[in-house]
Amino acid sequence: MFSPLERIISSRPHCSRQHVYRRANRVYGVAVHLYGLGLLIASALQLYRLSRIDYREPVLEVQRQLVSLRRLRIVSERALLISGFLVWVPIVFIALRGIGIDVWITSPATVLWNLAAGIGTAALVTWLTYRFRATFERDSTGRSLREVEAELAEHARAE
User: Fold this and answer.
1) N or C: which end of the chain has fewer CB within 10 A?
2) Which stretches of the chain score pLDDT less than 70?
3) CB 28 within 8 A of CB 90
4) How far apart are the C-alpha atoms of 148 and 132, rounded to whole Å?
5) What is the pLDDT of residue 10?
């Protein structure tokens, strides 16, 4: 039999690990919720700007509004893409916890290595989005917005 003092001493590391585990789960949850809010806010802003475009206005004014929408899409796509490479870590470990695998308790180094990989990948993707800026901006703008911009440019040349 263990004395009460021995029980306290032997259970202390377990308690501190449980405390770290709870804190890690909170951080996971906050990270995933912040990413979800980012997605929601970016979408809402884009839809709001799109709804404010009045196609009865002069062509140059509509083009100015479309350029503003285009910039917003590019900035939000870049931010969400980069942060997505960081938020996948908590999403995976939340899913693993849901099926009963607690990686933070069993192998904290795995969590840290995955986080490091996410940070490295985010840095690489950041560099790539600036290195191949034209391609990234074309792809993040979307075909529909490019078609409208081309149509308005053609209309402006005709006037």
Assistant:
1) N
2) 1-21, 156, 159
3) yes
4) 23
5) 45
